[in-house]
Amino acid sequence: MFSLEQGKKLVRAARQAVISKLEGKTFELKGFEELGGVFVTIHGYPNNELKGCIGYPEPVFPLNKALVEAARAAAFSDYRFRSIIKQELDNIIFEVSALTKPELIKVKTSKDYEKQIKIGRDGLVAESQGYRGLLLPQVAPEWKWDVKEFLDNTCEKAGLPAEAWKDINSVKIYKFQAQIFKETKPNGKIVEAKSF
């Protein structure tokens, strides 16, 4: 668990990583050397449309390096959106999700997922035959999905059929939680949006 002060540093670092890249400068985040999964999400302001979201679900890199890479990838390498340009910096907000390690949900039948997944707390990863997709915990409440819709959409994100999760022998579903920090306005106050 991170304190609000630590969360503020992470969000400011995400913004600075993007600014420094636009200016052709290097940037390093000091501290946060523990391994950690992290996602950086960029939204337009004030309409909140998604502008980029990329990260590392598994804690395989030091958090300081993973955060900088994720921020820059969300700004410049998310294939769904055009790259962020300097003129947009005053019209975007940054959100950082620090993740717990994904844990496999063990079920006897696909109906058991409903008891094991809590909307608003859990994020999901679907995995099968080299395909993998992830949706953060905040996505399901934003779209008002129930557990089945969340599972369907996570499978689709992985490039699988929507109801692939029902095949418990070939599709693995993992859950994780996130501590979420974000700007309330561009370069503005940073709050903890939700935590597990």
Short description:
The protein has two domains: 4-100 and 178-194, Glycoprotein, Type 4 Pilin; 103-176, 2-Layer Sandwich (Dna Ligase, domain 1), CATH 3.30.1490.150. Helices cover 27% and strands 27% of the residues. It contains five helices and nine strands, in the order αββαββαββααβββ.
Biggest sheet character: 5 strands, antiparallel
What string gives the helices and strands in order?
HEEHEEHEEHHEEE
**Strand order, sheet with most strands:** 2-1-3-8-9
Low-confidence stretches: none
Structural class: alpha+beta
Whole-number mean pLDDT: 96
Helix count, DSSP H or I runs of 4 or more residues:
5
* Shape descriptor: globular
What is the count of structural domains? 2
Query: What is the helix fraction of residues, given as a range?
Result: 25-40%
- What's the CATH superfamily of the largest domain, by name? Hypothetical protein ph0010, domain 1
CATH topology of the largest domain: Glycoprotein, Type 4 Pilin
C-alpha end-to-end distance? 9 Å
Strand content: 25-35%
Count of β-strands: 9
Name of the CATH first level of the largest domain: Alpha Beta
Radius of gyration: 17 Å
Structure description:
Strand 5 (123-128) and strand 6 form a beta hairpin. This protein starts with a helix and ends with a strand. It has two domains: 4-100 and 178-194, Glycoprotein, Type 4 Pilin (2-Layer Sandwich); 103-176, 2-Layer Sandwich (Dna Ligase, domain 1). The model has no long low-confidence stretch (mean pLDDT 96). The protein has 196 residues and is α+β, with helices and mostly antiparallel strands. 27% of the residues lie in helices and 27% in strands.
